[in-house]
Amino acid sequence: WMFSSVQFVQEHVSKNDTVLQFLSPAVNCCVDSTALRSVLWLDDEKEELKGFDYHPDPSFNQLLKNVITETSIIIVHGRGFSKAMTAKEAQAFVGDASCPVNILQPRSGSKRQRRDTTNDLLDLVVKFGHGEWTVGSVYYAQSKDIPLEIIIPSSQQAEREYEKVKHQLENLEESVRDRCKKEFTDLMIEMEDHTSDLSEARIPFLDYKMYTDRNFFLPTKDGSDDTMITGKIKIPEARKAIVAQALNQFSNLLNSKPFLINFIRTLESRPDFNARARGYFASLLTVALHGKLEYYTDIMRTLLLELMDEHVQNKNPKLMLRRSETVVERMLCNWMSICIYQFLRDTAGEPLYKLFKALKHQVEKGPVDAKMKKAKYTLNDTGLLGDDVEYSVLTLQVLVHGEGPDVTPVKVLSCDSITQVKEKIIDQVYRNLPYSQRPEVESVALEWRPGSTGQILSDLDLTSQKEGRWKRLNTLAHYNVRDNATLVLSRVLHSQSFHQHQDNYEEKNALLEDDHTFHLVRPADEMDEGKSKRGSMKDKSMTKAITEIYLTRLLSVKGTLQQFVDDFFRSVLCSGAVVPPAVKYFFDFLDEQAERHDNVDEETLHIWKTNSLPLRFWVNILRNPQFIVDVHVTEVVDASLHVVAQTFMDACTKTEHKLSRESPSNKLLYAKEISTYKKMVDDYYKGIREMVPISDQDMNTHLAEVSRQHTHELNTELALHQLYQYASKYYDVIIKSLDEDPAAQNKQLTLRLQQIAAALENKVTDL
Predict the structure, then answer these.
(1) Longest dimension (CA), the chain
(2) CA–CA dist 125, 110 (Å, integer)
(3) Which stretches make up the Plexin cytoplasmic RasGAP domain (predicted)?
(4) Whole-prediction pTM value?
(5) How far, in Å, CA of 23 to CA of 10, rounded?
(6) How far are the Cα atoms of 261, 296, 297 from residue 717, in angstroms, in the given order?
(7) Tens of pLDDT, residues 50-98
(8) Which of 268, 385, 500, 711 could in theory staple to 374 by disulfide, Cβ–Cβ 3.0 to 4.6 A?
(9) What is the distance between the alpha carbons of residues 545 and 73, in angstroms, rounded to a whole number?
(10) Burial bucket for residue 574 (CB in 10 Å: 0-12, 13-18, 19+)
(11) Alpha helices by DSSP H, 118-273
(12) CA atoms of 204 and 216, how far apart (whole Å)
């Protein structure tokens, strides 16, 4: 920017052959902005840029009101808000919570995202581009702090908006009801064909070892390569006996309550023992102590009482158990997983599996973009494939090489990529095998024999279509494969190139260049994006209609799957049938603790129960069915499962969800059902409270039986070995802490740990 002899210079942010990107330069406020010229300077070349208007930074008035509520709109007054920005570019934050900015006029309003109420002052920060202004401070008030005249007008207005949106949704649902009934009937028939017989024996439940591995260790940073899952560890043969004996002594030490409580407290006091390490440590502890679950439960109870007292004293009891940031919170999560395993197998696992299968089937009935991970049929609006894609349903006759003359009919879409076709073929041909026992997509080749010579089908080859710098993934339509065509599926040896028939150097390079590949919808290039920003008024006027079409499609999928969602919710939230003993026992424990503290009301108790079971366990299983059944969850299916899981979470909260046009689509989708689901949760908690109590003795008997049944399946020695790594890492502080603990001194715990260290690490001690 130039003003007579004064220059304001800004270096480029990024550049390539066709695009230069700059931030607008900071300009001295004393300069007349209307007299500024914009000049691009490249070496000795100067180019004046016409049509740029430079506006001063926005200014903000003092906040008129700094008390805000769960649903209030924050009004910010000032000047120059909409001169050079749009609402999409502006950002607002209360503390660290982002607020959607709805309007950009001299009166700018933004609704805050939900967060827990607190009286702490929080900065209200507004960002325009790379400029940031602290407008003032606000705090969230308790409802009793708000004058009644503020509540009533806003709630009446919200109620009118809510009723209006609800009515529109009911009309939309009515319009798709008949289609949903037909789709549901078709889905049931197709699922029966697909799964033959959905008896308990046909559901691929994970065995106890794989179930605990996936729940405890799969979410860790190493995932399926985690040592606890692979079971691989290097111990020299000559030391195996010494290590085994020392680990047995370490196990005895962990079974000393003063040592274990001290061990956990010492680790949690270390700043580098972060949330991830705490969760992993807790999972190792669960496996190591699995043989004595009564003792594990006692440790968990002791630590929970400490955590409770801490939250209540800090006057934030509602936050307890909200996250897994402490060892005991992860211990509780694992304890629930252990105690609910049999209930999953006997009761809730089948409706969960059927929901997953129905969702997968429905998603795959329509086009799924393999690159963008978007689908025509989904519950998730962000994963919705907006573009119309031409396709037809084909039935392929599939021969498996080396497995006899029998053909398997497989339904696919003409727009499916070759990898998608392989996945559908494997699903159908090997439908009676769990996912982990099926051949991997990369290990099979697909051959089509339209004439005397066969043709290997692949996602990319020399025939792939090019659109500028983009290359389209091959589909069945690309190869002109017709309905009823015969294809041969064969295994490929790993030593061979996957495209073994294509030795051409150029072709191999073409296969490797997949940075600019697309499947159904080509991403917009920079030139296209420029055009779309200047979109016509006609395009903009269509947006509302398009949104309604998309919502109708979401509602159609939701209606088709409604029975499966309801069945799962009922199986989990039914206190009239079987309730796992651990749930009754733990909820009674929470009831007792709530009575012990004066400032724990019914809402807080409801939150505790929700955080300890539905949010801690059921939401996790709903999002990850692979944690209980041997299946593969694709990204598009995962996106829809997240919507169902979010609905389950909403049903468990006491907060009323008032609808508006800005509500997220998942809230709109299940608006009609949410009150029913909330009542199911309330009735479930009430029903459990009215059940006959479970004594400590009965609970211990139940836990002892779980230990007896399953401990031999787990690798407790490996868990002990991994746990000892923490004792080794923090050895000095643990020894110091034990030396200062009278209970530890009485039991000579320091000496015992030193002896174990000497055996495991040849540590030199002063013994």
Answers:
(1) 89
(2) 12
(3) 203-733
(4) 0.73
(5) 7
(6) 21, 17, 20
(7) 767 777 778 887 776 677 765 556 777 777 776 777 656 778 877 777 7
(8) 385
(9) 28
(10) middle
(11) 148-195, 208-216, 227-230, 240-254, 257-268
(12) 20
Read off the DSSP letter of residue 443: G
**Burial of 696 by CB count in 10 Å (0-12 exposed, 13-18 middle, 19+ buried)?**
exposed
> Which residues are paired to 97 by β-bridges?
94
Q: How far apart are CA 704 and CA 712, in angstroms?
A: 13
- Residue 495 DSSP class: T
The number of C-alpha atoms within 13 Å of 585 and in the hemisphere containing its C-beta is 22
Of 346, 360, 545, nearest to 435 by C-alpha is 360
Placement of tokens 């508006």 in the chain: 660
Mean pLDDT (whole number) for 223-237: 80
Query: Which residues, listed in sequence order, are joined to residue 111 by a DSSP beta bridge?
Result: 73
Query: 755 is written with which tokens?
Result: 């002896």
Calculate Rg over the CA atoms of the chain: 31
Helix, strand or coil for residue 722? helix
Which of left, alpha, beta for 143 (phi over 0: left; psi -120 to 50: alpha)? alpha
Alpha helix locations (H) across 573-710? Answer: 581-596, 602-612, 619-623, 635-652, 665-669, 674-690, 696-710
Extract the tokens encoding 619: 């939401």
Q: What is the pLDDT at residue 497?
A: 44
Question: Alpha-carbon dihedral of residues 716, 630, 638, 443, nearest 10 degrees?
Answer: 110
- Tokens (6 digits) for 655: 């907060």
Q: Measured between alpha carbons, how far is 521 from 752 in angstroms, rounded to an integer?
A: 65
The token pair at 472 is 């389209």
List b or e across 637-674, with b for residues whose CB sees 16 or more CB atoms inside 10 angstroms.
bbbbbbbbbbbbebbbbeeebebeeebebbbbbbbebb
pLDDT tops 90 at residue 315: no
Task: Report how far residue 684's alpha carbon sits from residue 111's, in angstroms, rounded to the nearest whole number.
Answer: 33
How far is the first Cα of the chain from the last one, in angstroms, to the nearest whole number?
A: 76
By the 8 A CB rule, do 322 and 612 touch?
Answer: no
Residue 411, amino acid: K
Spell out the residues 6+ positions from residue 211 whose beta carbon is closer than 8 angstroms to its own: 205, 337, 341, 627, 628
Check whether 594 has a pLDDT greater than 60. yes
Letter for the amino acid at 712? H
Instruction: Assess contact for 632 and 435: CB atoms under 8 A.
Output: yes
Q: What percentage of the chain exceeds 70 in pLDDT?
A: 78
pLDDT one-digit tens code per residue, 441-489: 999 999 998 877 889 999 999 999 998 889 999 999 999 999 999 999 9
Look up residue 245 and give its amino acid: Q
Which of 427, 519, 533, 418 is closest to 471 using CA atoms?
Answer: 519
Q: How far apart are CA 261 and CA 743, in angstroms?
A: 11
* Burial category of 3 from C-beta neighbours within 10 Å (exposed 0-12, middle 13-18, buried 19 and up): middle
Q: Determine the length of the chain.
A: 767
How is residue 193 written in tokens? 């064909």
Q: Quick one: pLDDT at residue 228?
A: 84
Instruction: Walk across the sheet containing 466-467 and list its strands.
Output: 466-467, 470-472, 517-518
Q: What is the SS3 assignment for 475? A: strand
